Each structure stands twice: as C-alpha cells, then as structure tokens.
Predict the 3D structure of the following.
Amino acid sequence: MVRIDLPPLRARPEDVPVLVAHFCEKHARPGGTVPRISAAALAVLSAAPWPGNVRQLENAIERACVTARDEIQTKDLPPDLTAGATPRKSAIRPDVKRPLPDQLAELVARFERAYLRRALRRTRGHVGKCATLAGLSRRSVTEKIALYQIDKGEFKD
C-alpha cells in the first residue's frame, strides 16, 4: 500500500482553476459545450475555504453546470460560497507618508515568509528540498527561516 499525503484544497488554492476546468468538462451537458467560468466566479472559488475539500468543489461545479448557460457566473455558485464571500483583495496599502524602499522591504519580507512557509509545508520541513523548490541555496533558505523565525518542526508530518 502506497500512502500519498495531499494537503487540503484550502492549502493549495493554485489547484482550484485546474480542478474547475476538469469538473466543467466532466459535468458539461451531454452534447453541449463546456461552460466557461467568469473571472469573478473563479475568484470566489479560489478564495473559498473548502472544508469539504475537492468533493465540495466538484459538487459546486456540477451544480453550476446545470444552472449556467454558456458561462458560469457567481450567481450560479452555491449560496454558501457566495454569501458574504468576496474575492481576495490585495493587502497592499501604499502609504505616501513613508518612503517607498521601506514599504517595499516590508512587502518583500511578508511575501518571502509566506512563500517559505508554503514551500516548507510542501516539502514537509525539508530545508534542502525547500531550497531547490525556491531556487535558492540551502544557506539562504536557512538564514531566511531564522530571520522570519519559522519553526520547521510544524511542517514535519
């Protein structure tokens, strides 16, 4: 028996568009065209927490394929996804009272920390694999992990 550990869908929002395209093809009306998906609907789907994981996404797309005409709109999605749901907006708030280099440094630091946490999650805390994934040296990754005070242990198993 081979065990494959796959993070939940909420931890890999980059997979949502690929899965949506697959489920649109799978659940298209027989003899009909595969429905397209609007950018707004895709944004709502990408921002959803998906407690039911991939099965919940498939059910949402199956429902949308039944109710939509040519293009899946936000109104075609299940109400639990669209009730109060808004697409993720950028957290970038430029402050013209502060110098741009300071703000850029903070933005880069937040992005690096988030990237490293995601890469460590994907590699289960293995620094060497994380470095390869990030295209950095092991030493650089180790230094950044220390700088951002990331606990590698939380990503192991």
